[in-house]
Batch of 4 targets.
Target 1
Amino acid sequence: PALMLDVRLEVLEDSPFAVKSGSWVHLYLGARELLAKVVLMDENDLSAGRSGFAQLRLMEPVTAKVGDRFVIRFYSPVLTIGGGQVLDAAPLKHRRHKPKVLEQFETKESGSPLERLELAIMERPESFPSLSELVIRAGLDPVRVRNDVNLLAQKGLVVPLTKDILIHRKEFDRLKARIKSLLDDWHAKKPFSPGMSIEELRGRLASGTGQSAIDALFSLLEKEKFIVREQANIRLSGFKPQVNEAENEMIDKLDRIYQNFGHSPQVTSTVEPPKTADEGRRRNAALAALVRRGQLMRLDEAYYIHKSHYDQAWQKFKEMAEGGSVVITSQFRDALDTSRRVAVSLLEHFDKAGLTKPMGEGRTLR
């Protein structure tokens, strides 16, 4: 349902009235009759026999599709004065006498399917519409649209964030520049920080509806080596957090602690629990530095484990899974002499790394 329609409006040759921009008319669309305000895009009025682009702004929502025909009647007296065709059934609000807007109307009316798809992606950059939404809104052929997406991607005009979410190259470049600006500022002000939290950066870039698309954007930029994700933080790939003397002491201390934990690390929040916000920052920076140096592995929100013990655990799993054997969680736990929670965290990390795959109640080598 929408409160606006982009249309090609035609006035009957024998209409006794001209249609003025801003005038109210009775709109007949499908089985609906409702009031609409006519906003002409490039004219002040349309006299008998003329046509032009217009946006109909409605008193109540209506559902329509591209290509639907409609009739308009004068507000009072109620005489039929014209009609037309829907070009966009859920448009944005347009300003009049704008060359760019008129170009968009022309594309909607007579553009190729490829041009209409690109326009539909470009018009709502921050809403990250799905492919199915684009098909409906632009009146496209759902059978050929996937091929058109591939063509636009090959031309560099759109960037697929996921299989079904697309972003125009201009918006991709804008968001990339925005991320660089935010992180440059963060790194300049907080040189000891491992980066801005993913949650904060995501919130700065999109509302709730677009945040899953932003996560896909992060993955793409990480693949391009533009950013680095570390723990729950993001930094620019060329930035390395500075480490002060106090943090070096904390790094050495945590390295020894995690070596001593063996295969039974404690929950992260209980390891050297900070008494002040500054101590918390220093501890988190030290953990990030250890991960960066390859001395610690972050299994999940709850656990880190020393890399030497992680490698031992992986070696143990490979021995147990030799010959295609299925390794049950409890067997792996007993082999490492650890808790079930730690064993599960290790196994899930193996899964995410593409080393193992679930098989019934256990796992096998991938």
Target 2
Amino acid sequence: LEVGTAYFYAFNPSMGEWEQFGPTLRSDEDIASLGGEFGAAVAIGLSDLPRIVVGAPKSNLNNSLENGRVYTFEAIGIDWETMEATPMFGKFPYDRFGSAVDMTKDGLRFIVGAPGREPSGAYFQIYEWNGSAWVLAFEEQGSSGDALGSSVAVLTDSGDVFAIGAPGY
């Protein structure tokens, strides 16, 4: 099974072409990550140090399936370094946490959707960087079958306005 990858590119005006920024990113590559769809959702924030968030909505946790994972990275020179010791996981089986992600322009806040949980509904969460770790700042639960969090978008640079899709409502 696949583990997934994510790539980031930047336009080099002096060369007139697009170049890969940093190395190719890969999931943990442990048994729970196989088939996890690392790279299914990606977003970037361009602060002093570029930061990215990568979703892997079908990653497993212990013996439960498709909890989902979200990874965050920060650019250090021309390399990507993880921002947390372990990725963030969905709360329950079949959450598909990380199906959709977006990040503020400054890279200090991101939003993640978990549209897959039944029967009690899906959810989305907003995380903020406190200087040393990502902290859960806000969470909203959907209704049964609404698939809340299937799409997410930060609508302002600071992240104080956002939109969430719920196509199953």
Target 3
Amino acid sequence: MGKTTPMSPNVQLVSRLKFLRLDTTAIATLHKMSATVQEILPGVLEQFYTHVAQHPEVAQFFDSSDRIKFAANRQTEHWKMILKGTFSEDYISSVQQIGSVHARIGLEPQYYLAGYTYLIDETMKLVMKKLSDRKGLSTKNIEEFTKFQSAFLRAAMLDMDLAIYFFNETRKKEAQQKILDMADHFEKEVLGISEIVSSASYELEASARSMTEIAERTFKGSADASSSILQASNGVEHAAISADELGKAVAEISERTAQ
């Protein structure tokens, strides 16, 4: 079956092949019908891309005959690898590119699920036609067609499964990167605010120190003024007492003089 390659620590290609029952018998059937299918695929794929180009949701991706031919050729080469049944590293790389590109350009899985449906349906019809003679399908050809149909469906489901897997992996990485970018932006913004707050704190500390010095000088001046006022108040009080005593002495002298 060729060399396989792991896609992630949790997902292995071998387990997918077993789950889909894409065993050596099915792979041998694919390989046997490979030449017939390769004759059919280019026309089927080109018709499919012409078909989807008529739908506004995806028309932007296939808006010219050159793009349609390019997409059809790439898919034809991709399916040649599937029909060989080797499922090698080249195949994994190819399906990974398909899923990743679809994720980046925004071609959602629902559209290329439609592509697999179209591909399977038209390919089955044309293979049956090729296996038929004037009398229709013989018993031998019916058996051969049934085996091929089963193997082709399994291979298509495997490819669709992997394409969606890599589509989701790409989207997940993009989401993680956006979160990291947002965190980085937030960190830079917080750092800038911290620097502003630090600078403001330093300026506030300097202002507080200056105000403290002014308050101390003001307090000292107030204390000196209070002392001076107190001394002046004491002097006035003494003067009042002396004046009172002088008044009493003058009155006594006047009284004696009268006598």
Target 4
Amino acid sequence: VTSTPVLIDSAITLTDVDNSTLSSATVSITGNFQSSQDVLAFTSSGEIGNISGSYSNGVLTLMSLSGTATVAQWQTALRSVTYTNTSDTPNIANRTISFAVNDGSSVSNAGTRTVSVAAVNDSPIVTVNGGTTAFTEGNNVTSTPVLIDSAITLTDVDSSTLVSATVRITGNFRGDQDVLAFTNNGSSMGDITATYNAGNAVLTLTSSGGTATVAQWQAALRAVTYTNTSDTPNTANREISFAVNDGSTFSNVGIKTLSFAAVNDSPIVTASGGTTAFTEGNNTPSTPVLIDIGVTLSDFYSNTLVSATVSITGGFQG
């Protein structure tokens, strides 16, 4: 996020023994100025009269039209001057800030203030792709795993590598059905490996030594799959959560929704195999034969059936 500006010196004081007004002031970064990072600003309010300002190249110049702003108004204005840094990887050297005012004929001494700069390890950011991923149960076959989010993106403004990631089912988990998996393709995913804990639905991915790049982690998370091992799966939507770690801080949690389509598995007829022998009768009506006394039926979804057909599909003689 954008850094919060800080007041440089909220207790600075001004005096002028023979003038009640001042004309101008400068606030300058005179030590360790970083032109691509450092910004000075001030807050205009009704308490500072007609003082206005402009900032350029480390110098904030304040002016009072016709030099009518009072010493007290100038003091308020200088107390409102702020410093901020626009970089995600700021130079952490202390900055020296110098204040000087002018009464229209002479310039004051330069009062200095030190601003220390602390860099923060920015957390990685996970952004899931919008929409819902659809999963369809297999019809009497093992269900085909689906990519949970093939367009998920990762960023880290101050780190080129990440250490670990977790993908977990955080909504409507069914331990006897749900499976997360990952396979490294050997080319775009570095040394990332994964283990899945079926008890709590957590797929943990790691990079040995934290050497995998952000791009490699992104490719890995895009390859994570979901499948369901049940022939009668629970059809509630699942929520899948993604998070990564850069070695010291966790990212936000990106959540992807996975929808379900259950399939009415077709009944299965299993013939017993082999050949049934029929022999024509010798000058007598032929004796009917049972075609298959070992045929079996199964249906995962229903214990009743509605109809059946037995058809001669080869060599039929009408």
